[in-house]
Amino acid sequence: MNLRQALTLGRELLKLHNSPSYFIDAQVLLSKVTGLDRTGLLLKEEVVLTDEQQQQYKNLLDRRAWGEPVAYLTGSKEFMGLDFVVSPAVLIPRPDTELMVETALAFLQSQGEGACLAADVGTGSGAIAVSLANYLPGLQVYAIDLSPDALAIAGQNAILHQVDRRVTLLQGNLLQPISLELSGRLNVITANLPYIPSGEIAGLMSDVKDYEPHLALDGGCDGLDLYRLFLPQAYNLLKPGGLLLMEIGPGQGEAAKKMLPEERWQAEIKLDLACRERLVVAQRK
Ligand SMILES: C[S@@+](CC[C@H](N)C(=O)[O-])C[C@H]1O[C@@H](n2cnc3c(N)ncnc32)[C@H](O)[C@@H]1O
């Protein structure tokens, strides 16, 4: 079987299994097996796959056909223009979350060189923490997660992007692992904590609910339980004028704003590219 035939076969198989992104998925999996990028696959479409490559490709197609996310099959996902290692221990970084990183970067840049301390709570793959450190060379980021397995992946990503000296990994609950000595000193806190209401987990797409860690999804009764718990900690750690960024789901904006008393926070809700509520931006007064 040559590369052209392999691509056609893969697309047909995935289409048959109702994979919504079958066209690109087959190509990404074939690239993984051959080491060729999209252009390479096109230029070398007559090249014949080895038996081992055919077997590997077929195995990946089968797993994809059963619903396993492509990023777990390839072990990587692009976020903020950077490649991140991912495994089933971490949530696959979503393009929607780039809004949080862009907002944090713009704020920190506007503050000048003094703005150099950040914390990222529920860091998962480290997508947010590592991106911030990558694009702001003077920034020190504390990256926290409850899951040691997730932190191991975040550590790999920090090394991959050469920011491991400025990304401090801390295992624990919410902002608790951060030393009280840092009270009132952080410029930014980012948090993409689980925010899906418990009752909605069962209705999620199979590739999310059957493959991604539930520790990264379940946000309790209305989805905002963890944010409620961590807000007082965030207030104490931020310096006055510091920025808190929390990712939320569509329809959670009003409830999220209610958690932020006006005497403490100046808050607004930002929409994502699809005009859905996505980000709480709260400045500590
Ligand atoms: C929605 S994922 C976000 C991952 C990553 N920040 C991203 O944007 O791709 C939430 C993360 O929060 C972590 N987490 C859940 N409960 C936590 C807690 N109480 N304290 C710290 N981290 C927690 C999960 O392990 C998971 O990695």
Automatic annotation (TrEMBL):
Lineage top rank: taxon: Bacteria
Release factor glutamine methyltransferase N-terminal domain sequence ranges: 5-75
Reactions catalysed: L-glutaminyl-[peptide chain release factor] + S-adenosyl-L-methionine = N(5)-methyl-L-glutaminyl-[peptide chain release factor] + S-adenosyl-L-homocysteine + H(+)
EC number: 2.1.1.297
Pfam family, one: Methyltransf_31
EC primary class: transferase
Binding of S-adenosyl-L-methionine, residues: 122-126, 145, 192
Protein function: Methylates the class 1 translation termination release factors RF1/PrfA and RF2/PrfB on the glutamine residue of the universally conserved GGQ motif.
UniProt-recorded name of the protein: Release factor glutamine methyltransferase
